[in-house]
Here is the input.
Amino acid sequence: MRRRAFTVAELLVATAVAGVATALMTATIVRQQRFYSAAGEILSTRSQLRDAADILASDLRGASVAMFGLPVMTDTAVELLTVIATSVACAPPLGGVVGLPPARLVAGHTLTSILVQPDTGDLALIREASLTVPDSGTWESFRIAAFASRSLATTCPSSSGFTTPGDEFSGATGYQLTLTLASSPAIQKGAPIYFLRRARYSYYRSSDGERYLGYRRCSASAPFTCAAIQPVSGPYSGMTFRYYDSSGAEVTTAAESFRVARVDVVLKGSSASAIALTGDARTVWHDSVVVTVSPRNRMR
Here is the structure.
């Protein structure tokens, strides 16, 4: 019997067709990979811009501008005092010692809220009640000597009215705030307390040659020194701060920072490499974000 097989011409045609199909598939896969790589670069850049915008907006909004201003305010750096914790006094202070309720109460109420635990480098703002005029008073600032957890029996017992026997039974602990100076007799039971930390955000060049949003924690009282800078997010291709008062006039010096009612931040980012989304020439992709923040604690 004769066996039928492919001729040389048929094999050549089949091989050519397979080669063309493989080339087309490879080109399609390469284009898809480039597209997803470019999209990833864009999303990464936008994510970095959002990170800086969220961080700066949160801290600038909570900055205590009316009382402390902005100690440093340049086009590439801003220094501020912002709230890191809040609480209330369970009883009139004994000298410079103030008892605070726990962060969690059995009843579900929140009288102490701590984002970052205060320590000796921070300030405590305590509301002093007027002894002669009801519902009036002033805020006094104190340097913190110590802040630590203590038993409720010594910091905020159930007899204070801020906790219950259930809180003691649950094992909850309160906090003991020690000030460097004895407090005023005008500080009464239930006085609200804000804890402030001094920090500096700046646009700086790192050792890798890239520029980042950096953070430095600074001492809230003299001598005013700052720790080593730490990168928060980035890299970025540009960052600018601008400051304005309530009339829209630009504020340019720290001596006038108490007038600041608005801070504009311009953030610029770019892709780490040249990209092309739609088959155009490969180029570095740029984006920017403008954030406008109005501090809550500003002069009206």
The mean pLDDT is 84. The radius of gyration is 30 Å. The CA atoms of residues 136 and 295 lie 23 Å apart. The longest strand covers residues 137-151.
